[in-house]
Amino acid sequence: MLNALVIDTDPGLDDAHALAMALTPSAQRPHVPVAALCTVAGNTGIDAVTANARWLLGAYGEQAARTPVHRGAAGPLAGPGAEAAHIHGGDGLGDLTRWPVTEVKEDDVPAARALIDSARRDPGRITLVALGPLTNVALALRLEPRLPQLLKRVVVMGGAVHGRGNHTLNAEFNIVADPAAADLVLAHFPHLTLLTWDATLACPFTPDEFESFFGGETEAATTLRRIVHNRYLTDPGYADRSHYLRPDPLAMAVALDPTVVTRAVRHRVYVGYGPGTLQHGVTAVDWQDARSDRPPLTIVQELDRNRLLELLRV
């Protein structure tokens, strides 16, 4: 049974959906308190993603608005960062014209410290859901080396374990945005589940299914409908897609209901580093279990599609 979540994210269109899943009550999803929401530069810069988090929580209603927001890292541990304005718009939410809401105030405690504080306060009870680059998690690990033992579980959206990238030829965005941080995290958290780009590609949704995720009457559903329909208007190609991918909501589904994973494997995972080279941000899996220098991780292979259709509705 889940006790509480800490969500580390770079909102982001699909991050907005994942946050709604965690923060909107539903008979189809377990209710899990969110102890903290941490922001990290990724889809766009740290100022924008933090503003997005504050605005989304305010738009999602009174319960969501009680979630503390902690600003995190403004860039990677080393080397160049990466942004995805071509996907998420310059503001991260599809260049949305926002309507007035009471935004959640930003907490003074930095994200890495908030993660450590949450884990220390409730050891063995916190599930960390990391939906963006892993910079904050790596910083927290350096400040508190016992963090892997203090957390109950870690779910990460990241990686392209079969070499088909979504940002470079062979690398997934969240990993390539800070490969040094990613390699550090993947080397130290034995209870880590990786929801990869490969698993995302294996689980596309039809336009009708996609629309159904936001068909409810909750404040979160209303907000997401307006965000999605704005995206349709500003990017006609988005409206004409034959299918839609939801990487961050899939990771949130795995965090909220681990039984949605119907097939997984456990192997060690390594991340390449070399700005400007093909190895930069590559996730290499020790498929033959030839090495023993880090713990094996759970790599999601297949998901229960029918259960996903329930979990993703807000």
Essential attributes:
314 residues, alpha/beta, Inosine-uridine Nucleoside N-ribohydrolase, Chain A, 9-stranded mixed beta sheet, two-stranded antiparallel ribbon, globular
Topology:
Elements (H helix, E strand, L loop, with lengths): L3 E6 L3 H11 L10 E6 L6 H14 L9 E2 L14 H4 L17 E2 L3 H11 L4 E5 L4 H9 L3 H4 L2 E5 L15 H4 L2 H8 L5 E4 L1 H5 L5 H6 L6 H16 L1 H4 L7 H10 L4 E7 L1 E3 L11 E3 L11 E7 L1 H7 L3
Helix pairs in contact: 1-11, 1-13, 4-5, 5-8
Describe this structure as you would to a colleague:
By secondary structure, the protein is α/β, with parallel strands linked by helices. It has a single domain, classed as Alpha-Beta Complex (Inosine-uridine Nucleoside N-ribohydrolase, Chain A). Helices cover 36% and strands 16% of the residues. It is built from 14 helices and 11 strands. The protein has a 9-stranded mixed sheet, with helices on both faces. The chain has a two-stranded antiparallel ribbon with strand order 9-10. Strand 2, helix 2 and strand 3 form a beta-alpha-beta unit. The longest helix is centred in the C-terminal third of the chain and has 16 residues, at 219-234. The radius of gyration is 18 Å and the shape is globular. The two termini are 21 Å apart. 49% of the residues are buried.
The name CATH uses for the topology is Inosine-uridine Nucleoside N-ribohydrolase, Chain A
Strand content: 15-25%
Structural class assignment = alpha/beta
Shape call: globular
Number of domains: 1
Helix fraction, binned, reads 25-40%
Elements, N to C (H/E): EHEHEHEHEHHEHHEHHHHHEEEEH
Are there runs of 5+ residues with pLDDT below 50, and where? Answer: none
Indicate the CATH class.
Alpha Beta
Major β-sheet, in short?
A: 9 strands, mixed
The number of E-state strands comes to: 11
Under the CATH scheme, the architecture is: Alpha-Beta Complex
- Kindly report how far apart the N and C termini lie: 21 Å
- Helical stretch tally: 14
Quick check: average pLDDT? 95
| Strand arrangement across the biggest beta sheet | 4-3-2-1-5-6-7-11-8
Radius of gyration: 18 Å
What's the CATH H-level homologous superfamily? Ribonucleoside hydrolase-like
